[in-house]
Design goal:
Elements lengths: L1 E8 L4 H12 L4 E7 L4 E6 L6 H10 L3 E4 L12 H33 L6 H6 L6 H18 L1 H12 L5 H28 L3 H8 L4 H22 L5 H6 L5 E6 L2 E6 L8 E4 L8 E6 L2 E4 L1 H4 L5 E3 L4 E2 L4 E2 L4 E7 L5 H14 L7 H26 L4 H14 L3 H20 L2 E3 L2 H7 L4 E4 L1 H5 L5 E7 L5 H12 L5 H12 L8 E6 L3 E6 L2 E6 L1 H7 L5 H12 L3 E6 L4 E8 L6 H10 L3 E5 L4 H11 L3 E3 L4 H13 L4 E5 L5 H6 L2 E5 L4 H6 L2 E3 L5 H35 L4 H4 L5 H20 L20 E3 L8 E9 L4 H12 L4 E7 L4 E7 L4 H10 L3 E2 L12
C-alpha cells in the first residue's frame, strides 16, 4: 500500500475538496483520499499494482481541477503563500479602483435626485438623458471589463465545475455576475435599436436597466472575502520548517579515534557522536560516556531538565545543558523522534476533513434549480405568445434576483466580523473553518506545562531545619547554586535577588551530575542536591525531614536539600505553579458541559498535584509527543469533537490532529503555527470565549442564510411572473436587483451585530470574579486606591519583608501593609496603577496570588 501526497489547484470551497475526494476515491485501487483545503493538498492511500499517481492526477483533472505530486517522501516543504496574498491584494485593489467610478456613473444621477442637487455639467453633458444613452451604457461596460478580467478565475472555475456537474461558490458567482453582464449587453442592443428607430420609451427603459454595477459589486465583495481567506492561509505553513530547524545540521562523530564534523543526514546507526554543552542531539541515541542534564521541554513538556548518564536514552532535538556526552546513534533519518513528530504534523494536517459550509451544501442544488427555473420561465412565456423580448427579460430577471451575492456573503461576512471580534479580545483565529468547528467541541484537552502552569519553576517553600533564618539559608543556597546551570538553581538565585541577598564567595565548587553540587563558604563545606547526594555523603535524614521531603514531592514540587558535612540545614522547594486563572477557566469549561482532560508528559505525581489544584477530573500523564497525538485521535475515533490547548513543540502533532488546535500565545512559534487558534493573552479563560464566539458566529451564519434564501423564495416566483396573469404584476429587473441588494444589506447588517457580542473580559486584568484582588473606592483628591492582595507562601517575617519591598518598589505605590496572619497585602497606590503590575510584583518575589476560597497555610519553619 502506497501513501502519497499531492498538490491540488483550483479549489475554492469545501464543495471543491469534496468533489476531488469523490473523484479520486472512485479510481480503482485507491483505498482512501483526504483533501486539505487549507493547504491545497491531498493525501492518498492506494495500491501500486492497481493504480498510479498519474491515474490519480487524471481523476483530479477530470473533476475540473489541477494536481501534481507534492514531492519526494524525504522532502518536507512549506508552501509559500506570499505570492498568492500579493495577487489577491492586487485583484482587490483593481476591483475597487474601477468599481467606484462605475457606481458613480450608474447611480450618481439617483443620488443627485434624492438630495435635490443639480448634477455637475459633465454628468449632464455625457451621461444623463436618452441622448447620452450609448455613452452612459458603454462607459459602464468599459469600467466593468477590468473588474471582470482581474477576477476571471471565478468564471473559469465556476463554469468549469458547473460543466462537470459539481457547482460550487464560484459557479454561483459566475452565474450571478454573468446574468447581470448578459442583461446589460442585451440592454445596450435594445438602446441602439430604440435610438435607430426613434423609440424613446424603449431607450429610457433599458438605459435604466443595465446592471453592470451589480456585476462589479458582486465580484468585488466576493474578492474581499477571498483576500481575507488567503491571508489566513498564509500563516499556516511555517510549523514544519521550524520543527526541522530544531535539530543541528552538523554533528561531531568519532571514527577511528578521530573527531569529525559531518552533515547530520550522514550519521548512521551505531555511530558514536558527541554532544557538547549547549548543543542539541541530532539523532536518537544511548549515552555511553559522560553525565549531563538535558532539556527535553520541546519534546516531552517536562519543564525540569532530565539527568542522563551511561545507558540512558537520548531524544533527538533535546538540548545538552552542562557536561560533555558521548552517545551511540540508535535511530537516524526519518526514524528519529523529531522526524516522527514532523511526520505526525504533516499527516494530521493532511487528514483534517474540510468543514462544509451550509452555502456550499446547497450550491449543488440551488444553482441547477435556479437555472432550470430561468429556462422554464423563458420557454413558458415564449410558448404563451408573450414575445421573445418579454420571455428573455423574464428569464434574466429570475437570474438577477437569484444572484448569489447574499448567499456568498452569508458565511464569509459573519466569519470576518467574528474573527475581528476575536482579535479585539486577543483571540487570533486562523481560518473560518476553525471558528465554525469550535462550536461543536465537547472535549477540551489541556497541556500542563506553560498552559495550565506558568512554565517557569519558582521557589514555593523555604524550610529552615537548623538555627538559620530564611535569608541565611537563601544566602548559602544561592551562593552554592550560583555556580550551577540547572534551571532549579536559577529559581533560587531569582529568589535571592528578589530578597536583595548578597552572595558569599564559594571555593572548591564542584557540580555533581545527577546529584547536585558542593562548595566551601568561609571554610565550611556545603552540599546542595537530592536525597541520593545525602546518602552518598552519609548525611542523616530524620523522620520529620523525610516526611517534609515526601509531602513536597507529593504536591508536585521538587525539594532541594541543603546540608553541611553533618546535617541538613534547610529544604527549598521549587515548582512550576499554576497560572492565576487556570482554576477559574477549568470551572467555566466544565460549567459549559465540556469534558476537560489534562494531557502531559510530566510524571503522575506532579500531574495529579496539578489536577487537585485546578479541579480537573481526568488526567493522562507520562505521555510522549507521539502518544499525545494518539490520545487525541482515540478521542476523535470515539465520537468526540476535540480541542487541544498547548504551548510546546511537543504539542504540535496533537494540535494538528485535534478538530481545533488552540495555542497559548506565550508558547513556542511551532505550537502557534500548528494551531488553528492562538490565545495572545496566554489565558485559559479565552478558551471559554472562543467557544462562545464560535456559537454566536454559527447562529449568525444560519440567520444570514435565512435572509439570503428568504428573498429568493419570495422573489423568484414573482420574477418568473406568477402574479402577472392575475394582476399584471411583473417584477422589473431593476427591482429584482434592488431586492438582491437588500438581501445583501440584511446579511451584512446582521453579521455586524456580532461586534456587539459580549465576551467575558474579566481576565483583562488577570483576575476573575471572586477575585484574589479587592479594589476599594478612590479616596481623597489624589485619586488613590486601596488594593488587597491575598498571598500564599508567606511563613515568617522575612516573607512579609520580601513582599513589602517588592510592592514598595512599584512606582506610584504610597503605602504597603503586609499581614502574615491574614495572608494578604493591603496596598495604597495611584489610581492609574494596574492591578496586574501589583500582582506580578508579588509573583516575581516568589509568592503566589491565590483565590479567597483557597487560602492555605504557609511553609514549615
Amino acid at each position: 500500500m502506497m501513501k502519497q501526497k499531492f498538490s491540488v489547484t483550483g479549489m475554492t470551497c469545501s464543495a471543491c475538496s469534496s468533489h476531488v475526494e469523490k473523484s479520486v476515491i472512485k479510481t480503482p485501487g485507491v483505498k482512501n483520499a483526504s483533501v486539505n483545503l487549507l493547504t491545497n493538498s491531498m493525501q492518498v492511500d492506494y495500491d501500486e499494482e492497481t493504480t498510479s499517481s498519474a491515474k490519480i492526477i487524471t481523476a483530479v483533472e477530470s473533476a475540473g481541477y489541477g494536481a501534481s505530486v507534492f514531492g519526494s517522501a524525504d522532502t518536507v516543504t512549506a508552501p509559500d503563500k506570499t505570492s498568492a496574498i500579493t495577487a489577491m491584494r492586487q485583484r482587490l485593489f483593481t476591483s475597487v479602483l474601477f468599481l467606484i467610478p462605475l457606481l458613480y456613473i450608474a447611480m450618481g444621477h439617483m443620488i443627485y435626485s434624492w438630495l435635490s442637487i443639480t448634477p455637475p455639467s459633465f454628468m449632464s453633458s455625457y451621461f444623463l438623458g436618452n441622448a447620452n444613452a450609448v455613452t452612459y451604457s458603454f462607459t459602464q461596460l468599459l469600467l466593468l471589463l477590468p473588474i471582470v478580467l482581474i477576477n476571471k478565475s471565478y468564471f473559469i472555475n465556476g463554469f468549469k465545475t458547473l460543466s462537470k456537474g459539481s457547482p460550487n461558490m464560484d459557479s454561483l458567482i459566475a452565474i450571478g455576475a454573468g446574468a447581470s453582464i448578459v442583461y446589460g449587453i442585451f440592454s445596450i442592443y435594445r438602446i441602439g435599436y430604440g435610438l435607430g428607430y426613434n423609440l424613446p420609451s424603449l431607450v429610457e427603459h433599458y438605459r435604466l436597466n443595465l446592471y453592470f454595477e451589480s456585476a462589479g459589486m458582486i465580484l468585488t465583495l466576493i474578492t474581499v472575502g477571498k483576500y481575507l481567506e488567503t491571508r489566513a492561509k498564509g500563516k499556516t505553513s511555517d510549523a514544519i520548517t521550524k520543527l526541522i530547524n530544531l535539530t543541528p545540521k552538523k554533528v561531531t562523530v568519532i571514527k577511528n579515534g578521530t573527531e569529525k564534523l559531518i552533515p547530520a543526514d550522514d550519521i548512521l546507526v551505531d555511530d558514536i557522536f558527541i554532544i557538547k554543552p549547549g548543543e542539541a542531539a541530532a539523532v536518537d541515541g544511548i549515552v555511553i560516556e559522560g553525565r549531563s542534564a538535558f532539556d527535553e521541554t520541546a519534546l516531552t513538556g517536562e519543564s525540569i531538565p532530565v539527568t542522563k548518564s551511561p545507558g540512558d536514552k537520548l531524544i533527538s532535538a533535546s538540548i545538552n545543558k552542562t557536561g560533555l556526552i558521548h552517545a551511540k546513534a540508535t535511530q537516524v533519518g526519518k526514524n528519529t523522534t523529531i522526524a516522527k513528530i514532523i511526520k505526525l504534523v504533516e499527516d494530521a494536517s493532511a487528514s483534517k476533513a474540510p468543514i462544509a459550509k451550509l452555502a456550499d451544501k446547497v450550491a449543488g442544488v440551488f444553482v441547477p434549480i435556479v437555472i432550470g427555473i430561468s429556462c422554464f420561465t423563458g420557454l413558458f412565456w415564449l410558448y404563451n405568445g408573450s414575445g421573445t423580448e418579454f420571455a428573455i427579460s423574464m428569464a434574466i430577471t429570475v437570474l438577477v434576483i437569484s444572484c448569489p451575492c447574499a448567499l456568498g456573503l452569508a458565511t464569509p461576512v459573519a466569519i470576518m466580523v467574528g474573527t475581528g471580534k476575536g482579535a479585539q479580545n486577543g483571540i487570533l483565529i486562523k481560518s473560518g473553518e476553525a471558528l465554525e468547528t469550535a462550536h461543536a467541541i465537547d472535549t477540551i484537552v489541556l497541556d500542563k506545562t506553560g498552559t495550565i502552569t506558568a512554565g517557569k519553576p519558582i521557589v514555593t517553600d523555604i524550610i529552615c531545619t537548623d538555627s538559620n533564618d530564611e535569608n541565611s539559608l537563601l544566602k548559602i543556597a544561592g551562593s552554592i547554586e550560583k555556580g550551577s546551570e540547572h534551571p532549579l538553581a536559577e529559581a533560587i538565585i531569582n529568589r535571592c535577588e528578589t530578597n536583595a541577598i548578597k552572595f558569599a564567595t564559594v571555593t572548591d565548587f564542584k557540580a555533581l551530575l545527577g546529584l547536585g553540587a558542593e562548595g566551601c563558604i568561609n571554610g565550611q563545606k556545603y552540599y546542595a542536591g537530592n536525597i541520593n547526594l545525602l546518602h552518598e555523603k552519609g548525611i542523616y535524614i530524620n523522620d520529620i525531614q523525610n516526611k517534609i521531603i515526601q509531602e513536597l514531592a507529593q504536591k508536585g514540587k521538587t525539594p532541594l536539600i541543603f546540608a553541611d558535612t553533618q546535617k541538613i540545614i534547610g529544604i527549598i522547594a521549587v515548582a512550576d505553579t499554576i497560572k492565576p486563572d487556570s482554576k477559574t477557566a477549568v470551572q467555566k469549561l466544565k460549567a459549559n458541559g465540556l469534558n476537560v482532560i489534562m494531557l502531559t508528559g510530566d510524571n503522575k505525581i506532579t500531574a495529579h498535584a496539578i489536577k487537585s489544584q485546578v479541579g480537573i477530573d481526568n488526567v493522562i500523564a507520562d505521555v510522549l509527543p507521539t502518544q499525545k497525538e494518539a490520545q487525541i485521535t482515540a478521542l476523535k475515533n470515539s465520537g468526540h469533537k476535540v480541542a487541544m490547548v498547548g504551548d510546546g513543540i511537543n504539542d504540535a502533532p496533537a494540535l494538528a490532529a485535534a478538530d481545533v488546535g488552540i495555542a497559548i500565545g506565550a508558547g513556542t512559534d511551532i505550537a502557534i503555527e500548528s494551531a488553528d487558534i492562538v490565545l495572545m493573552k496566554s489565558n485559559l479563560l479565552d478558551v471559554v470565549n472562543t467557544m462562545h464566539l464560535s456559537k454566536a458566529v454559527i447562529r449568525n451564519i444560519k440567520e444570514n442564510l435565512f435572509w439570503a434564501f428568504f428573498y429568493n423564495i419570495i422573489g423568484i416566483p414573482i420574477a418568473a411572473g406568477l402574479l402577472y396573469p392575475l394582476w399584471g404584476i411583473r417584477l422589473n429587473p431593476m427591482f429584482a436587483a434592488a431586492a438582491m441588494s437588500l438581501s445583501s444589506v440584511c446579511v451584512v447588517t446582521n453579521a455586524l451585530r456580532l461586534r456587539n457580542l459580549r465576551l467575558d473580559n474579566s481576565q483583562n486584568n488577570t483576575f476573575p470574579p471572586n477575585s484574589n484582588i479587592i479594589v476599594q473606592k478612590e479616596k481623597g483628591a489624589n485619586k488613590m486606591k486601596t488594593v488587597t492582595i491575598m498571598i500564599e507562601g508567606m511563613s515568617c517575617s522575612h516573607c512579609t519583608n520580601a513582599v513589602t519591598k517588592a510592592l514598595q518598589s512599584v512606582n506610584g505605590v504610597d503605602d504597603v501593609k503586609v499581614s502574615l496572619e491574614k495572608k494578604n497585602a493591603v496596598v495604597t497606590a495611584d489610581n492609574n496603577i494596574s492591578v496586574d503590575i501589583l500582582k506580578n510584583a508579588v509573583i516575581n518575589a516568589g509568592y503566589d496570588v491565590i483565590d479567597l476560597k483557597q487560602v492555605k497555610q504557609g511553609c514549615h519553619t
